[in-house]
Specification:
Elements: E1 27-28, E2 32-37, E3 44-48, H1 51-55, H2 59-62, H3 67-71, H4 73-85, E4 92-96, E5 99-108, E6 111-118, H5 125-140, H6 145-160, E7 164-170, E8 176-183, E9 194-195, H7 202-210, E10 213-216, E11 224-227, E12 230-231, E13 236-237, H8 250-258, E14 263-271, E15 274-283, H9 291-333, H10 340-346, E16 359-364, E17 367-372, H11 377-388, E18 394-397, H12 400-403, H13 411-414, E19 416-421, E20 429-434, E21 439-444, E22 451-454, E23 459-462, E24 468-473, H14 482-550, H15 556-587, E25 592-596, H16 597-608, H17 610-613, E26 618-621, E27 627-631, H18 632-650, E28 657-665, E29 668-675, H19 706-716, E30 720-725, E31 731-736
Parallel strand pairs: 26-28
Antiparallel strand pairs: 1-11, 2-3, 2-6, 3-11, 4-5, 5-6, 7-8, 7-15, 8-9, 10-14, 12-13, 14-15, 16-17, 16-20, 18-19, 19-20, 21-24, 22-23, 25-27, 28-29, 29-31, 30-31
Length: 737
């Protein structure tokens, strides 16, 4: 409800009754008084407007009085104790204005709500105890749910003497069915009739979970307004969810009047925390049963609910045990070398027999394997696409065409489906199919004519006819039971474990292949070293002899050719060295230690002989370079390639300069090397770390492997490298390990 809509709406009809705020209806039934009081001061703040009739005090005089004046000092003290100790309230019998009441108290938000309900017939504790004993004896000997329902209806009729007592069970779509009935002989039977979910809207079902027994003593009663309607402290209406005297929805009253019902008693059947159904009692004249009789009704329904739970649990456990044996056989027969579909096709127990069905399908990596009676492959793929849009890991329906209209064409094989997702992929599924079951359903009135227009009340009203209306249903399968869903859940875990084992096996095999490939690469690299170096040295040697011994006798053109051969052989020697280095980095294992980057760089620069080879270049190393934990041999090679490139590509600058340092970024130490050399164009910067990729001019020596080695070393240390550069303005390489 929005902040603005604090009161019961002025207009409610069948079309919007599912949104009717029946918990703030603002009215009381006529057989008692609803009183709201401040739980700190016990001063009356609101009350139904029938106080004069029951208490002898006008409504105007009643508002604002102390509860003590109405009920006395001791009852108020007992209320205070219950509130302070949070111990719960007990029913209290009181006599006010010569009327006998049962006072029923509860807290609702900032209010203490008191129902003063007339006591009615004097109750006999001995008779009450006898009733409870007969309930236990009458229900505990029953072994099946249908016979239990029959027995509960008979007990309710015997004890409370309503004209008609029905046990009403909900299906998964909240339609109801009368599964047991006891009635007066002259009444038409409603046994096996179905009623649409709209007859008992969702908010009514939720209230039954809170207030388990509901009485309407006179369907034709005059509702008693509660004033003031809005609680003056919070400016909100009273929440009467738990009030036994709460007024009744006018739509429900009209519904009962159309059925010719004069009074009703309804009790919630709650099984494992869920609303299983209702015990619905109808009387065809006004009928009141007091609080203690309703407590008997509540006890009967609780015993009934517990027995249903026990029977269902027994069936569930038996089915799960049977399915567990079959499931274990299937899982044990799956072989790691087979695909899942192949494995399930070979098992001695078909996976479709695990859950009652006539067909199934395995959809894995866009491959389909069908089992038994199923739709066509293209149709199964359509169902797969429909399921992929669902959030549920396990999905089930007995009426697929209702959610997916295309299923109309294959309802004879797949009116019902139960499926689960395999692994983490969104489009891998196991599916069971159930065919259409021809079924004729009898409704209490035509469910297609739920409403009619009431000229007198100027609104839509509930249907007036409840005559038996028969309909033939199509496209509906047998329902999936809770043990089916539990079996599917456990089977999914089994298959996911199988797929995980296959993945581990595949990863192990790939690792083994990779290790063998690395060994082959290592042998290949050393083969290159041995097989190529020998002829290369021969070429280089003979070219050198030609140059030294015969260059004077050769024409200038021949001498240039010899120089070209020498340069090419030297370049090939460098390529072989770089390939070997890259191979060692790729296949080598890390040997991590902590070391000083400052000392490493000093050692490196000494090997470069900067003063002799690069006399014009200034190299500045930051004093506070942090230490590194890594493979020192590899990091030495990393710095060697970066420093070598920086020296090479900046040597033609007017004042060549290198800066080496570090910065802190996102709790990491980031190293950098900056030069003022030729720089690199933006569109070339992503290429420089590829093997044999060179973006500089040919007048700079190199093989294009050095930066690939740098990138591989950083990758092995789980680090990152990037560049900031502009042509003609130098480059800065950043990296962290």
């Amino acid at each position: 409800m929005s902040e603005e809509q604090f009161s019961y709406p002025e207009k409610v009809d069948v079309q919007n009754c599912d949104k009717e705020p029946i918990h703030i209806i603002g009215k009381a039934q006529a057989h008692g008084v609803i009183v709201a009081a401040n739980p700190q001061t016990f001063q009356v703040t609101q009350a139904s407007e029938n106080t004069l009739k029951f208490f002898g005090i006008s409504h105007q005089d009643f508002l604002g009085i102390s509860l003590e004046k109405l009920i006395g000092e001791l009852p108020v003290k007992r209320l205070q104790t219950s509130i302070f100790e949070e111990s719960g309230f007990t029913a209290e019998e009181l006599k006010i204005n010569e009327n006998s009441f049962v006072m029923l108290a509860h807290l609702s938000g900032d209010n203490l709500i008191l129902d003063f309900e007339i006591l009615g017939k004097t109750w006999n504790p001995t008779h009450f105890q006898q009733q409870l004993t007969s309930i236990i004896n009458g229900l505990d000997t029953t072994e099946s749910i249908p016979s239990l329902c029959d027995r509960a209806a008979k007990l309710m009729k015997d004890i409370f003497d309503y004209d008609r007592v029905m046990v009403y069970r909900f299906d998964e779509e909240w339609n109801g069915e009368v599964v047991a009935e006891e009635k007066e002989e002259h009444l038409e039977s409603w046994l096996d009739l179905h009623y649409p979910a709209s007859d008992i809207p969702s908010q009514s079902r939720k209230l039954f979970l809170k207030h388990k027994v509901r009485i309407i003593s006179d369907v034709n009663y005059e509702p008693v307004p509660i004033a003031s309607e809005i609680f003056p402290v919070t400016n909100k209406p009273l929440d009467l969810s738990r009030s036994a005297l709460r007024g009744v929805s006018p739509i429900h009253i009209e519904y009962l009047q159309n059925m010719k019902v004069g009074a009703s008693l309804t009790a919630a059947i709650i099984v494992n925390g869920n609303l299983w159904g209702l015990v619905a009692c109808h009387h065809y004249s006004a009928k009141f049963i007091n609080y203690y009789q309703r407590e008997t009704c509540k006890f009967l329904t609780q015993v009934f609910s517990n027995n249903i739970s026990t029977i269902q649990t027994g069936i569930f456990n038996k089915k799960i045990s049977e399915n567990s044996e079959l499931r274990q056989r299937i899982v044990e027969e799956l072989k790691i070398e087979d695909s899942l579909a192949e494995g399930l096709a070979k098992t001695s127990v078909p996976f479709t027999s695990l859950i009652e069905s006539e067909g199934g399908a395995v959809i894995l990596d866009n491959e389909i394997k069908a089992f038994g009676k199923t739709p066509k492959e293209a149709e199964v793929l359509e169902i797969r696409d429909f399921l992929a849009q669902k959030d549920e890991v396990i999905f089930h329906t007995k009426n697929l065409k209702n959610q997916y209209p295309k299923a109309e064409k294959y309802k004879k094989s797949a009116s019902g489906i139960l499926s689960f997702k395999l692994g983490r992929a969104e489009d891998n599924f196991i599916i069971w199919f159930r065919p259409e079951v021809a079924e004729t359903v009898s409704w209490g009135g035509d469910p297609n004519n739920k409403v009619s227009y009431n000229e007198e009340k100027q609104r839509l009203s509930p249907r007036k006819s409840f005559e038996k209306w028969t309909e033939k249903l199509d496209g509906i399968s047998h329902s999936w039971q809770d043990y089916d869903l539990e079996t599917a859940k456990v089977f999914r875990e089994n298959l996911n474990q199988f797929l995980l084992a296959k993945q581990k096996e595949e990863i192990s095999r790939l690792n083994q292949n990779l290790e063998e490939a690395n060994k082959d690469l290592e042998l290949f690299s050393y083969g290159i070293s041995h097989d190529l170096r020998s002829p290369l040295r021969g070429i280089n040697g003979f070219a050198q002899i030609l140059k030294e011994d015969f260059s004077r006798d050769l024409p200038a053109e021949a001498s240039e050719t010899i120089d070209t051969i020498l340069k090419a052989s030297n370049r090939m020697e460098g390529i072989i060295d770089d390939i070997l280095s890259f191979s060692k980095i790729t296949s080598g294992e890390l040997e991590k230690e902590k070391f000083s980057n400052k000392k490493l760089l000093e050692e490196l620069l000494s090997s470069f002989n900067i003063r002799t080879n690069f006399p014009d270049t200034e190299v500045v190393i930051a004093e506070n370079l942090p230490e590194t934990f890594g493979d020192r041999r590899m990091v030495f090679q990393l710095w060697s390639n970066l420093v070598g490139n920086a020296l090479k590509y900046s040597q033609r600058a007017k004042a060549p300069k290198l800066e080496i340092g570090s910065i802190s970024e996102n709790n990491r130490e980031v190293f950098y090397i900056k030069d003022n050399g030729i720089g690199i164009a933006k569109n070339d910067q992503d290429k420089i770390f590829n093997v044999f990729s060179r973006v500089s001019k040919n007048d700079f020596k190199g093989t294009g492997v050095g930066l690939s080695i740098v990138a591989r070393i950083i990758e092995k240390h789980n680090g990152k490298i990037w560049i900031e550069s502009e042509p003609g303005k130098g480059s800065t390489f950043f990296f962290y390990l």
